[in-house]
Amino acid sequence: MTAVMSRPPGAVRIGLRRGLLELRLYFREREAVVFTFLMPVMLLSIFGAIFQGELGDTGVDYRQYFTAGMIASGMMSVTFVGLGVAIATERDDGTLKRLYGTPMPRSSYFIGKTLLALTLSLLETAVLFAIGATLYGVEPPADPGRWFTLGWVFVLGVAACSLLGIAMSSLPRTGRSAPAVLNLPFLALQFTSGVFVLFDSLPGWLQQVAAIFPLKWMCQGLRSALLPDTMLAMEPAGAWEHGRIALILGGWCAAGLVLCVLTFRWKGRQDG
To answer: By CB neighbour count within 10 A (0-12 exposed, 13-18 middle, 19+ buried), where does 58 fall?
Structure first.
């Protein structure tokens, strides 16, 4: 009697299981969960207490403007910083080396990380939007077109920042240094991309520097989905520039993918 050989699960199926495992492990770390979700809420509350009143004749409160930027910042925090630090730590403690030696398809690891990043980004966005709607009057997109804008800005932003986080994970020499290495550029981008400071109040040269990176365009895209068109008066170009937003975020997705292929390492520096 011939034994029937069952087919091993595919890379996608293994990746989804890996993603569920990543989520379970993440939510067991209470400190990480609290820091990830509480920090943006605290910052939004602090800025909401400091900055009040309308932006010129736009009819938009300062706090509504900052809510859109804080949502974009939260997305980048759980992807660029969160993924980068987690992967650097797993490389340093030998987790990646052990996974590399298993029969698990390499792509399954990244599918799992993608599921983790996407889930955390959705939760972060929902929490910040709920705070903004409850305390500062931020309203959901007014029509299907704005919902569509919110969707593609979210997807491209999460994809670009996730890929860059994976690529940057190879830069820290150790897992302990990863938070400092990843948070430094993130913090600088927050101050230059319209998260903590009105973007049109920045010097022209600083606006040009910020426009190179994805966070500025994520903030602008979310403002276009969540705020009225009266806010166009506060945009340097006087337009939402959806085409440019999509082009630049898509370009960063491509650049991040190339960087991942060129720089990703399964072993730590001490392993040679």
So the answer is: middle
- For residue 169, the model assigns a pLDDT of 92
| pLDDT on residue 48 | 77
Going by C-alpha positions, the residue among 198, 206, 202 that lies closest to residue 223 is: 198
- How distant, in Å, are the alpha carbons of 43, 131, 224 from that of 37? 11, 12, 24
Neighbouring C-beta atoms of residue 75, cutoff 10 Å: 29
What is the per-residue pLDDT for 1? 41
Contact 246, 156 (CB under 8 A): yes
Point out which residues pair with 54 in neighbouring strands: 61
Token couple for 18: 């890996």
Residues of the chain with pLDDT under 50: 1-4
pLDDT given for residue 216 in this prediction: 96
From residue 189, alpha-carbon distances to 18, 107, 157, 216, 217 in Å are 31, 30, 14, 8, 11
